[in-house]
Amino acid sequence: MFAEVTFIKKTSSSRCFCFIYFYFFADLLPASDGDIKTMTFLQEVVDILLAYIVESFDRETKVIDFHYPNELLQMNNWELQDEPATLDDILISCRATLKYAIKTAHPRYFNQLSTGLDMVGLAADWLTSTANTNMFTYEVAPVFVLLEYVTLKKMREIIGWSDGRGDGIFSPGGAISNMYAMLLARFKMFPEVKEKGMSSVPRLVAFTSEHSHFSIKKGAAALGIGTESVICIKADESGKLIPADLERRILEAKQKGFVPFFVSATAGTTVYGAFDPLIAISDICRKYNIWMHVDGAWGGSLLMSRRHRWKLDGVERANSVTWNPHKMMSVPLQCSALLVREEGLMQNCNQMHACYLFQQDKHYDLSYDTGDKALQCGRHVDIFKLWLMWRAKGTIGFEAQIDKCLELSEYLYNKIKDREGYEMVFDGKPQHTNVCFWYLPPGIRYMEDKEEKKKHLHKVAPVIKARMMEYGTTMVSYQPQGDKVNFFRMVISNPAATFEDIDFLIEEIERLGQDL
Amino acid sequence: MFAEVTFIKKTSSSRCFCFIYFYFFADLLPASDGDIKTMTFLQEVVDILLAYIVESFDRETKVIDFHYPNELLQMNNWELQDEPATLDDILISCRATLKYAIKTAHPRYFNQLSTGLDMVGLAADWLTSTANTNMFTYEVAPVFVLLEYVTLKKMREIIGWSDGRGDGIFSPGGAISNMYAMLLARFKMFPEVKEKGMSSVPRLVAFTSEHSHFSIKKGAAALGIGTESVICIKADESGKLIPADLERRILEAKQKGFVPFFVSATAGTTVYGAFDPLIAISDICRKYNIWMHVDGAWGGSLLMSRRHRWKLDGVERANSVTWNPHKMMSVPLQCSALLVREEGLMQNCNQMHACYLFQQDKHYDLSYDTGDKALQCGRHVDIFKLWLMWRAKGTIGFEAQIDKCLELSEYLYNKIKDREGYEMVFDGKPQHTNVCFWYLPPGIRYMEDKEEKKKHLHKVAPVIKARMMEYGTTMVSYQPQGDKVNFFRMVISNPAATFEDIDFLIEEIERLGQDL
């Protein structure tokens, strides 16, 4: 078997095009003589991917070869047909798909909280696809279930829960992790809600900062709590929740006869990167007996850094924590964990005892059949990429990576805070890698009419962003916030970025924006 | 660049072990001279995967090298460390992980509704990992967003909705797709529930067959409806919902002042593979103005088969349909679609207008920013594997694959229905590939005391299953159902399975069970 593999690998590159050209999917495994054809085909795909990867890291290439949707629809035949295509056509489709994709590994891709492409994480994801199994039972995912166990325990230790005790799950993203937390908080206070629904409980209210992620409201809408029962707490100028306002709103709600059940503090807000004051919040939660959740989807990873973890001081007092390794730790998408302090609660909250899946008379220790604590039935294997990357980097490797991103953002902040044409959205050094700023082109810079100036400034970031995409040189996000007009939100989670890339970004903004 | 790729590929196999041994993750890209080391490392991983794939299809290998959890924990060092490991250690970890994994591609792996490993689907998943992006906006996933649009439209055409109109989304599994449907049904009837929560609406009740999937109840618990508000409708002997009982229970609920809002019919139940009578159910739903959902997670794929799609007659009258290509169509996990007849409803139900993500002043057609209709914020790219497989097989390729699985199950049914020592759980030819049966070992076969016989029989399937796993020869599921003691539920979705594998399964059950 192995000899054959080697043989194929050595010869495929010269043979594959003519070799694959005349074949179809039906010639691949499980076809009886499909071994060689399969390996040739997969090797050909891998060659396309390897070339794409190397190219993605090359600053000379574009981040994106942008086309408008109607153009892109016409640039290839994307329609599905009744008849099969040749494997050669499949390779062509792979190349076309990558040609128009965003190069998320590119050192100048800063558009989202999740950027970069980790090589060990990628290898792990390829292995996960090849193993093609499901997390619901030990029976079908023995290794992955154990690795989830080991990794969640380690993450709870890092949070600071004694001996890493507690519970948790990897879910399909931070929004779902936050929804789990709200679901658990409700169940903890009113377990009857599982059977009897919201009509059996008093009016529940949740609290979160006005800067928090929209998934808190989305979760409340889905869970039948309603968005109006999510009370937005004022944040200070730098985006941190104001504890006094939280307490005031809790008391107000109680006076109305509502039941405060859930506070979601944010560790690393989406736009400003602010860390809510967790200790003060936890004091209030304890005083009023409210579940404290920490949405650390973005900022949770700073727990890995000895230099920065103080920003989450008090996280160990939370009842639940969302932490997305697919953001600041560059684990390939998706990888989001919900960590829960109380053991057994998730199981009680979500279990339905499906007897076709969680048979009670299996021959192994059933505590490893973790699927019934999930909202999902089948669950994708998201653990292996995190586990293998942790193995490859060690905790100190993640720490170094995170510290470097924060260093780059400090460099950016220092570079623009007093630079002509720039204005910071809030004062002081950013706590996370978010640097929020306006770029004022010369034509706007000295406008005297403040309203006119604001109106013009609001249009600057969208135009510069559109030009960035059309040139394909870099990508960075922008948005308005409250009464603040459109500003750039630069975030750095891409391990490929360097000081030079930060310099480039500033030059590029000025190049693309100077005529506005 | 391309010359370099070729060079690496040709030489890696002889150099890689010594080459990689001394290196660490930090030597890979984005390290400045990381190209060659990265390609060598990734090629080495691919070689491990290719060997595993070829081995997985070989009937001489085990489906699983089974170990109990406490043994497996000790068979390797799975713990996470502070210090980085060498890349050589990473390769060792990859090999160890695969050694103890289930070979889901194995022709004798029948354990779940999702079995098999499709080579084009796998290639597509590798590409998806490499592109490492997020479905929320066109901006970051231009091609994948278009492919989702094209594919959902095609699926709606196949359902029978005129011109493929409607809406839909790929979600993380059938349970979440079903939850979406329930959420939409509630919002359609009481849009105020989004803001005001369940306390603003009357007591809602949902209906589904007693054989339906547990996710309907799980969804109701999460959405604040409560499991007691899911009314289980009687099924006939073959597992189909009895429409008369549905109507009776709807009337009963209305008399109590409850509001029926949702009926979930099942197209392909999990255990029996039964198809609920959709036309009769839709008549009732129309009469009482209730949202009709079809949970076709398992059976929806039969729509691709001209021979079998009559089993879903009436599906075009549904308001929403769950259809999991990761089951009967062998798309790698996960790939689940929710299709919705009414356009715009998902957006209205779920949107939260996050201005940092869905900016309204972007330079392209914003209708392609589909993320705000999702419950998730970030969403994994699940579309490419389905799209590429469809491209490779054509509709007729999927049809042939599905028809073959149904043929195999009919073969199994015909083989055992009159065979000594077998008893079918329900009469008649199965409608899906589920074949439910008891195997009665000689020692039990002629027992006269019926209760004693049942008690013994209940223990047979778990023991045979445990032995299958210990020998690693095959895997098939079992469960009790209602008052029926443990029976085998054979399902065939694995395109690698042949008539000989069915013969093998029967021989194996008899070999492992004859002494019981």
From TrEMBL, chains A, B:
One biological process term in Gene Ontology: gamma-aminobutyrate shunt
Keyword Transferase annotated: no
Cofactors: pyridoxal 5'-phosphate
Gene Ontology cellular component annotations, sorted alphabetically: cytoplasmic vesicle; cytosol; Golgi membrane; presynaptic membrane
SUPFAM superfamilies in the record: PLP-dependent transferases
GO molecular function: glutamate decarboxylase activity; pyridoxal phosphate binding
EC number: 4.1.1.15
One Pfam family matching this protein: Pyridoxal_deC
Keywords on record: Cell membrane, Cell projection, Cytoplasm, Cytoplasmic vesicle, Decarboxylase, Golgi apparatus, Lipoprotein, Lyase, Membrane, Neurotransmitter biosynthesis, Palmitate, Phosphoprotein, Pyridoxal phosphate, Synapse
Main EC class the enzyme belongs to: lyase
Compartment list: Cytoplasm, Cytosol; Cytoplasmic vesicle; Golgi apparatus membrane; Presynaptic cell membrane
Residues carrying N6-(pyridoxal phosphate)lysine: 327
Membrane topology term: Peripheral membrane protein; Lipid-anchor
Family label: Belongs to the group II decarboxylase family.
The protein's role, per its UniProt record: Catalyzes the production of GABA.
Assembly information from the UniProt record: Homodimer.
Protein name as catalogued: Glutamate decarboxylase 2
Source organism (scientific name): Anabas testudineus
